[in-house]
Amino acid sequence: MESMMIYMPIALATLGLIYMLVKKSWVMKQDAGDGKMKEISDHIYEGALAFLNAEYKLLAVFVVIVSILLAVVSFIVPTTHWLIVIAFIFGAVFSAFAGNIGMKIATKTNVRTTQAARTSLPNALKVSFGGGTVMGLGVAGLAVLGLTAFFIFFFWFFMGSEWTNTMDMTIVLETLAGFSLGAESIALFARVGGGIYTKAADVGADLVGKVEAGIPEDDPRNPATIADNVGDNVGDVAGMGADLFGSYVATVLAAMVLGNYVIKDMGGSISDAFGGIGPILLPMSIAGVGIIISIIGTMLVKIKSNDAKEAQVMGALNIGNWTSIILVAAACFGLVTWMLPETMQMNFFGEGLQEISSMRVFYATLVGLVVGAVISSVTEYYTGLGKKPILNIVQQSSTGAGTNIIAGLATGMISTFPSVLLFAGAIWASYAFAGFYGVALAASAMMATTAMQLAIDAFGPISDNAGGIAEMSEQEPIVRERTDILDSVGNTTAATGKGFAIASAALTSLALFAAYVTFTGIDGINIFKAPVLAMLFVGGMVPVVFSALAMNAVGKAAMEMVEEVRRQFRDIPGIMEGTGKPEYDKCVAISTEASLKEMMLPGLLTIGFPLAIAFIPMIFGMDPLAIAEMLGGYMAGVTVSGVLWAIFQNNAGGAWDNAKKSFEAGVEINGEMTFKGSEAHKAAVTGDTVGDPFKDTSGPSMNILIKLTCLIGLVIAPILGGHADETGLANNDTNVSIEMIVDSKDLAKATVNYSTIKEGKKTSEVIIFEGTQVEVEKELNNFEASLTNEAGDVIKVIEKVDISKS
Amino acid sequence: MESMMIYMPIALATLGLIYMLVKKSWVMKQDAGDGKMKEISDHIYEGALAFLNAEYKLLAVFVVIVSILLAVVSFIVPTTHWLIVIAFIFGAVFSAFAGNIGMKIATKTNVRTTQAARTSLPNALKVSFGGGTVMGLGVAGLAVLGLTAFFIFFFWFFMGSEWTNTMDMTIVLETLAGFSLGAESIALFARVGGGIYTKAADVGADLVGKVEAGIPEDDPRNPATIADNVGDNVGDVAGMGADLFGSYVATVLAAMVLGNYVIKDMGGSISDAFGGIGPILLPMSIAGVGIIISIIGTMLVKIKSNDAKEAQVMGALNIGNWTSIILVAAACFGLVTWMLPETMQMNFFGEGLQEISSMRVFYATLVGLVVGAVISSVTEYYTGLGKKPILNIVQQSSTGAGTNIIAGLATGMISTFPSVLLFAGAIWASYAFAGFYGVALAASAMMATTAMQLAIDAFGPISDNAGGIAEMSEQEPIVRERTDILDSVGNTTAATGKGFAIASAALTSLALFAAYVTFTGIDGINIFKAPVLAMLFVGGMVPVVFSALAMNAVGKAAMEMVEEVRRQFRDIPGIMEGTGKPEYDKCVAISTEASLKEMMLPGLLTIGFPLAIAFIPMIFGMDPLAIAEMLGGYMAGVTVSGVLWAIFQNNAGGAWDNAKKSFEAGVEINGEMTFKGSEAHKAAVTGDTVGDPFKDTSGPSMNILIKLTCLIGLVIAPILGGHADETGLANNDTNVSIEMIVDSKDLAKATVNYSTIKEGKKTSEVIIFEGTQVEVEKELNNFEASLTNEAGDVIKVIEKVDISKS
């Protein structure tokens, strides 16, 4: 069984996808309600498709451009294989496909949830969470399927499906990084573009509809209302899905890279039952098992009573979630002890090689699981209704918008304290347990329940939409009440989901950062070197500017929406009376175009800076390793600052939102009950206006920024760094010749096994005499020479030979 | 002359102080106006004194505690000398004294400016700028005087006023760091406490006075109005003064440390006309000359026409400022070529020793001057009236406070882009020219005009106060118009002054950071080590949390003020009619107490974190060098994040302020002229409320946070690091014995020159025979052994001898 382990993750992913299809057909079979409901739902579905199609067109252009660039790079740089282009395209396509599945199922489930809510709350939960499950399994299944399939393919292609050495495996993983880059590129479009879309539509719809025309939210007379509902799906479903798809793939990849590094530290090869690649297979296996565990978790999410409230629904979700987490812990224990050598050697910077038991790797995975759980509690404390920070913001609203804003900003800022200490503790602990491999596995363990997390995340916007459809199709109040319960729980899970997403992005980036160092072969990133320090500063600045650009983008896109809605109110006769039909599609088109246009500049910033840092100094002839160190400083700056700004913005935004919501049930300020419509409430609404782009656009975008930055670094790494490996071959030489002068006349033949980057594994045999010179002139990345006698027995394996660069 | 060069800075500083006294007596001789003006001025003077006295009491306690701690440390740690305690106390006292001079002259000049404004605008400028000049020269003079006096003393004490080696000089400079730490500690109280004071008084006065009671600003019936005016002096005069005093001292100190490092790189000693310490004397000399240049600059600031407007006044300031900068450039050229060896060797990390010509050091100083000038322009672009960012915020005010806030936040965030690129470029360039010595000298050159900068800075609040006194004493409108012109220019210089302050703090911190590495003897700060990376995260978080605490502190202190003002309005009969006299002193007392109380928590955060990072792992037995690297990571995190948040908050705050002010003259929004009192203006006022603590409390506090963090690191450094110097003596040994077995019978005497940390330079002579063993058992930090024959001629100098640790 052990030798087949490499196929296990792919099998489990396929199982997950099959379950997803079953679940999907079950959801689709549910009653989609009456004509009006269907009509609205169809509008949302079509709007979502319109966004997806526009996004895909832009994406196609982007993918073609990047593919050409990557192809050029792989042509010029000997260590980069052209297959990275294929991996990149598939990564992009898989992620886009996962987003497509999620968006479609979400926009089909919403109306079915409304219909189910007409019968009972348990049914409504079942349907909406069913839709979320489809989404979650689609993302997780495709991520694991794609990544492992490409790994198996590259492992075969470059290494003949057999362990050769860590250098070859590095080539495999470097090429595999293309898949991750593709996935994360889609996330840029989906998360940033989606984030701009959802808030532009929201703000645009509100500004004209609620404020100018005085009609309620989700009123079908408002031309932007469909765009607003589409936005929920675009931002919270597709955006979050692409974000976690990217994190999932990148985390597993980084852990594999560091697993390879562990093997290197252990002398370049290990013998285990898994073909000598146990440490590399482990993260994939955890991901595969995580899919099955998530399925079990989703099955546990149900309520029985029709009179259940938010607490019961939340409880049901918690049972599923916690069960998954505990099962993952158990699975990690089993997999780690089974797949890893009992003790390993790991190189700790500055401390040399250390003996690490596999149990310590298990402890590292526990660290990851704890971080995932604790960050949610931290997020909930700073953004939850009835918690102290929210009550304080409510209190400060009584003296006006200014003090409300200050209180909200301060809350977001202070929330970085426990969050960062948690991350810092996690880095420290998981590293202390098992080096950077431990850090990457902590991230992998945390991400193992991605399918479950996404199911919980996605059910929120589905329920939100269901409520909107109930409103627009004028259902009985009980329907809206039931969907409101789900929506309210969804708001909480949205906030904690953002905590999970940033935690995953942070750990992923750290793992990628560590992988980057191993790829470039630099021996660390020394910020006492001024250029490195300068880049740390620049990196720290980028998330701040990115956030500002994203916020401004929302403003600009919203203004275009406002103009269009005003035009329709003016030009379409009878629109306010309900006799004229608003042109929903025009609003959808405007949101779509504006959001995709406005994400260009932040996108360019994200991609342009690391490329500029890498290539401009290269043109001026700077030492590639010095550049690699500078780029590492930049990556660290982006990660540290990005994580801070993500937490700050997400939590400030969430806090303002719930401070505003507090007024709905009434709050006590200075001994007086205060409600909606009061001056304090107006101040709180102002705070929420500021918080909206914070929590839904710029905040979540940070995840993509930091991951994509580190991934671009990882893909550039082979260009910059020498694979300064134990074989001593520098990768910057296009031609390396091996000279092996044989010193014995007993030998008849020399067999030289070597691999070249372009041709893969090769063998060359030379009949030799004393003094024969064996030469291999190729773009080598690995060689092994053995001398055989006339009978063909290997009598001597030469590990080191002279290498002269041509 | 060259050999007397060490006394030059002290002489120039004394000259500066004498000029200050002359200027001061001139200002004091000016007419202080009529009875009512004097009365108000006296209230402000007394209020300022009340704050100073309360601050001094708290300070005294703080200084005593820190002194005891330092004394304990110097008792336990052999490399730390108890004289650091004396240096610390003097640093604190000098800084406090400088603040005292500034505060007193500012509160005496304000009323004289009002009186002068009754005659003409040129006179008003002359008086107010005269007050500023006194302040500037007081700060700069005392800073240079104190620092150089202590250097001369320690140089004599530890080295007998003669060059021995770099290790001894390190001890001198480490002890001198106490002076800098003392100065920066005062800055913490003055800048952070002062920042809280000024905004608490301002907000408190406005909330009750303007909003509740409906009386104008600066109305004498408002009990908080004196506190408000005191606040201007406390925050903008004393706070800014202490901030720059600290930067000035720290920059020069860091440059001296790195100058010593240059000497080390050149083999441990150089021979020049300056006793072999040219590179160490240079930064002090630049500072000394800078004082004289500043005096020249201040003399050029004058206007002739009584009808001058803001532009002419600004022009006069610019002439003075630019002349100073150009003169400093010329002085740097002269001093650098005169005092430095023509070529030096400097160690560049990762690149080894390089030959550096003294001209390259000069170029580095130019980099500093350019940064100082450009950062002001950048700041002015993002915060200046009529500039694009401000017009955009004005535009966004038309759709409400929410969009105004978003636009202001975005402006502050985007302003980090050019600022950080400027800093990063400066780090890179000055390092490329002359290593970290270049970075520190860039900072020194920029800081050379500190006296001039402070004069420009301080004249603003003086004019602001003068306007307030004109209002309160009911002068003719022309008086207020004239002071308003000065005040308006003062607002611009306040913004650019903040830019200068943060640039100085950033460069100072970098220089301190570099000095830190040389003190600890670590060979870099590798963020690929997980604990270092974790501390980089933690360091990045601290400025964010600090800012939040500072903002909240303003809110709390303002609320206490509000309560008091309400009480007085309620309890004092006839207060609104002008017959009852408000109890100004109570309000002053409340502001004073609240601000000092509220600064405790952020202060604790600033001091506590580096101490915890250093000492907690030490208790657990962690390797001191590993701790030193972690602490370095923390320092880098604080610096990078602190600079970002300082720029963000200062510029956002400045932008909101001027967006609000734009409405006073009227602005065009969507084709319509809009004025004060409009909805858009109200939105802009809300933005300004948020911006106030940003730009006057939390933003400027970042300067102190980053400098103090790096200084604490520097003071802890000897405890953590070994002085892993070329002599090979480890500093962690309390007892080192030197064995020198003489192998020749031709020798009659061995003279061993050595120095011990506690006793200073010593000589030991031993009559020797063949086989004699010379032993010196002391807490050594240096030795040199020479063998002399009977005639007393040195025939052999032993540079290396066996050292055995006892």
TrEMBL record, chains A, B:
Annotated GO CC locations: endomembrane system; plasma membrane
Catalysed reactions listed for this entry: Na(+)(in) + diphosphate + H2O = Na(+)(out) + 2 phosphate + H(+)
Topology within the bilayer: Multi-pass membrane protein
Keyword rRNA-binding: no
Cofactors, names only: Mg(2+)
HAMAP family, alphabetized: PPase_energized_pump
Quaternary state and interactors: Homodimer.
Function: Sodium pump that utilizes the energy of pyrophosphate hydrolysis as the driving force for Na(+) movement across the membrane.
Annotated family: Belongs to the H(+)-translocating pyrophosphatase (TC 3.A.10) family. K(+)-stimulated subfamily.
Name the UniProt record assigns to this protein: Putative K(+)-stimulated pyrophosphate-energized sodium pump
